[in-house]
Amino acid sequence: MIPRPPRISLPLLAKELIEQAARKRTYFVRVFYAVLLQFFGLLMFAERFSNSSNAWGMLGQGRDLFTFMTALQFAGVYFFMPALVCGVITSEKERDSLMLLFLTKLGPWTILIEKLLSRLIPMGTLLLLCLPLQALAYSLGGVSPTMLWGSLWMLLVVMVQTATLALACSCWFRTTSAAFISSYCVGFLMLFGPFAMIMIVALLFNDFRGGFPLQPFFNSMKSLGIVQSEEQLLFPFFGAIQFFATATRGLSGSLGRIVIVSIPSMMTCVVFLVAARMFLVKRAFAAPFNPLVEAFRGIESGLDRVNQATRSPTLIGRRESTNLPVEDPIAWRETEKRSIGRTRHIPFVILLIVLPMLGLLWLGLIRDHEWCFGIAMLLTPVVWFGGLVTVAVRSVSLIAGERSHQTLDILSTLPITGKEILLQKFKGISRLIYVIWVPLALLMTVSAIFRAGWLPSSFWPGGRWPPQVIPYLFTAALSAIVYLPMIAWMCVLIGMLVRNQGRAIITSLAAIIGWCALPFLVILLPLELLSRSAINDLPLSWVPLLSPVTLPVMNEANEVLELWGGSFRSRLYNGVAQPNSVEIFVRLMFLSTCNFVWYGGWWFFLRRICLENADRFLGRMDTVSNEHGNRPNRGWSQRIEERAMDSHTTAPPPVQTPEALSSEGPPLATEITTFVDIPPT
Amino acid sequence: MLVVDVQNLWVRYGKLVAVRGINLQIPKGEVFGFIGPNGAGKSSTIKVLATLLREFVGRVKVNGIDVLRNPQLVREKIGYVPDFFGVYEDLTVEEYLHFFAAAYRIERSQRKTIIGDVLSLTDLSHKLDSPVDGLSRGMKQRLSLARVLLHDPDLLLLDEPASGLDPRARIEMRELLKALKEMGKTILISSHILHELAQLCTRIGIIEAGQMVAQGSVNEIYQQLGVLRIVHVQVANSLEGLADKLRQIPGIESAEEQVDRLAIRLHEDQTSIEDLHDHLVKFGARIRMFQPEAMDMETAFMKLTEGKTA
Asked: Which of A35, A193, A502, B297 could connect to A87 by a Cys-Cys bridge, CB 3.0–4.6 Å?
């Protein structure tokens, strides 16, 4: 008898895939992604085709199309893979179902691998959608087989790298929101940390021989054949950079070399996977622990001891007070029991963020002004990114978190209006936003000082106009004041509408990215590809403002005047308009005001939607409208009521008062069926 | 006065009709037990009363206040314990209760006293400084009851309060509910644990597939269903033909001779247990054991329902 080969059974993977297959969203996302991808691919193809006089002219044009598509795929993996994976274990913890998994015959490694595969497979299918376009690009020429296979390999490595990173975070943290934030933060450190470290070391030792930090070290690495370009040394774990630096420089890159440069990324995969295995069981039932709050408690008990020793209750600022809620309990919990903690903790938090930044700026200043300015310019997007992600996740978890902790029903039966619940809950977010404003304000001030004259006009390249400080500060300050609350209210709305916390976080991330990118992808890119000159003048030159990211970025890059169009730019270049003139000032201020009136409107609109519909979104009865006797959703309910009432006319239901019950006894099933068996509409 | 008045209640989730025309009236001071299989519509009905469901049809009043027209006022009159315990893991028991005391706008000067009282009632005074997350499940349920008692509501809505509790915690919970009953609280309680409801409730309602199939006091339901009482009897002297004589008494359905006893099934409305005892003495039986079996709520439940869900 021939022995049967052992059956490979992957029940957890099967269950996850079946669940995903049962969701309409899976198909919607796939179709949306495919349509968008094919649309841009074909648009680019059409543009190239229209620029070629004949079919021969198309030869070799596939390289740009291939590069664009591959870059888009890398961006997709880096942005969405952590969001997809970070909830795989935390969601089990939140549902108390991880214990059940441990009780099965599935080992920890099996659980991890099956969970990992359950997210890698859907992402892989999304990437497969690009194959027809890659085939098209390949057929056009300019793409070597090494590039094709190399891109597939590196995409696979990057997928596994980001997925294992998020998996390790999911195993360590207790909640999806914490795992989500940490996945992106650790990912950011992994990709840009080596660069930052090299820069700091170079600044500390003032080692910029040859114009590049640690040039001798790079030379020795290059002579060993380990790296080919500077970027590869600065970003060893950044697979996309490694790929483009290796594969797209001429056609000389070999597949073997791409595999070699992917080794650091593969090593991180192993490290993250081992970490995930260690954390899975060890941290499965970990007690809640907030290091920041614990640190504050330590500081406070230290202060108490000092006060007791000196027999002065308020010697160093700690006033004994009750920790119990007095008036607004929900606001109390949001502000007293969260990471940022009490008001007196905020200076500590700010110092914790600001001190390293000041250290870096000081290091830059030791070298020269341009370096300090450069560091401020680098830190600005970092603080924005960190701040936005934190605000978004905290906001989306405001209600979704209550829902996942099963406390929303209890909160909803309190005699507090939905609007009041939301406003009280938002106080914690407001405090978080105030904290984020401080480092942003520091960076703005540093940047403004340099723009005001510490840097020579020749610093601004290409004969570009030197900046005006007041419009810069105006735009930068309003960006922080308007955008953070606007994004926060948008995420609160998503958190109320999407019932699952993990899904709500992913949706909010997609919404933010979509809002920032779609105006470029859907309007500007097609226009750019089809008619380059069309967007050079007003009003189309203002279309980029439909993306909230445009003005802050152009403001930092000193390019806001570009938005006034080509004709104005030529006036500027020709010296008709003076860079420091009132006209420029007015134009800058006008543009900025228009932008922030528009987004301020969005802020108030989103806030209003949230507050006015709070009861409905919380799933409770409407406090305001029903005071006037309005009834929600009259559609189906009215129909049932009418039919029920019609039925009652022929066989009215006996209203069972206790007296009636005691005299006649309750009606039995058969009796009741006669009057309640009305077919639903 | 009716504390709960539900007339022709319909609840629907998408295509699923969860509650089909329920009528329910609960006067003040009554403990009403809501029995039904999973998915029968118990929680949906309770959620409507707790102002947590927006979409329903029918007239629902709490203390005479329409829940649709003035849900905010209704929220002040009710205390709702859901079938799960949502954990504010970052709070201690004291902070947890102060949180809800502040939410119910209880006077600051009275909060400490009230919290002390409810903690003492629920036997949690020694846990004042413990984190909520560290409490056992039974303690968490008692803490939930303490929470809903803070503002002294007119109506307590308890959705499966004993589910998932161990026997000791269940008994503690039952005793606590008895204490609340003696305090005159109106309680609507849903449970699967049928005999516990039978001991506690003044009236019960059996719901299946969204329809109320029976309601009334426990005895009324037994009588109407014709549920027979079984009495186990042991006699010291051997009496020939005792079983036959018993069978001839009106109301005695059967008298089965078992190894060491007689199992007598009787209709209580025709022959009471006391009458049966008299008959046995009259027939000359020297009674060693006379044990009427507890009324079986599970039998009643099985008889009334078919295990259908909405």
From this structure: A502
Residues A347 and A229 in one domain: no
Q: Do B100 and A414 touch (CB under 8 A)?
A: yes
* Partners of B264 in the β-ladder: B231, B255
Which one of B25, B90, B215 has the shortest CB-CB distance to A337? B90
CA distance A161 to A614: 40
Of A621, A666, A678, the CB nearest to B221: A666
Beta carbons within 8 Å of A67's beta carbon, 6+ residues apart: A244, A248
Chain A hits for B56, CB-CB cut-off 8 Å, are 637
> Taken in order A496, A501, A507, A511, is the CA torsion positive or negative?
positive
**DSSP secondary structure string for all residues of B101-157:** HHHTT--HHHHHHHHHHHHHHTT-GGGTTSBGGGS-HHHHHHHHHHHHHTT--SEEE
How many domains does chain B contain in total? 2
Residue B13 touches partner A, C-beta closer than 8 Å: no
Rounded distance between C-alpha atoms, residue A397 and residue A384, angstroms: 20
Are B203 and B282 part of one and the same domain? no
Distance CA A653, CA B135 (A): 46
What pLDDT does residue A658 have? 40
Residues 202-231 of A with CB under 8 A from B: none
Distances (CA, A) of A405 to A337, A432, B140: 16, 22, 14
User: Based on the domain organization, do A587 and A451 belong to the same domain?
Assistant: yes
How do residues A94-104 score in pLDDT, each as one tens digit?
A: 877 888 888 88
Does A40 lie in the same domain as A174?
Answer: yes
Task: List all residues 6 or more positions away from A464 whose beta carbon is below 8 Å from its beta carbon.
Answer: A558, A559
Neighbours of A459 (CB within 10 A): 15
**Statement to judge: residues B54 and B134 lie in one domain:** yes
Interface mutation target, options A93, A413, A643, A672, chain B, most CBs of B under 10 Å: A413
Looking up residue B237, the CATH number of its domain turns out to be 3.30.70.100
Q: Does some domain include residue B305?
A: no
Give, as one character, the DSSP assignment of residue B264. E
Specify the CATH number for the domain of residue B203: 3.40.50.300
**Please, which pLDDT band fits residue B137 given cuts at 50, 70 and 90?**
confident
Q: Do A620 and B211 touch (CB under 8 A)?
A: no
- Under the banding of pLDDT at 50, 70 and 90, the label for residue A489 is very high
Considering A601, A622, A643, which residue would you say is the last residue of a domain? Answer: A622
Mean pLDDT estimate for chain A: 79
Quote the CA–CA distance of A393 and A511 in Å, as a whole number: 13
Smallest Cβ–Cβ distance between B10 and the set A616, A620, A640 belongs to A640
> Has residue A678 got a pLDDT over 60?
no
Top-confidence range, A337-346, A451-460, B152-161: B152-161
- The parent domain of residue B282 ranges over 228-294
Give A-chain residues touching B91 at CB under 8 angstroms: 333, 337
CB contact under 8 A, B21 and A637: no
Which positions ≥6 away from A660 have C-beta within 8 Å?
A654
Q: pLDDT tens, A566-602?
A: 666 676 666 666 666 788 888 889 989 999 999 999 9
Smallest Cα distance from A411 to chain B, Å: 9
Contact flag A672-B78 (C-beta cutoff 8 Å): no
Nearest CA in chain A to B68: A626
Alpha carbon distance A659, B217 (integer Å): 12
Q: Report the complex ipTM.
A: 0.79
Q: Are residues B132 and B21 in the same domain?
A: yes
| β-bridge partners, B191 | B35
Count: domains in chain A? 2
CA distances in angstroms from A66 to A30, A312, A391, A518, B256, listed in the order given: 21, 71, 36, 21, 89
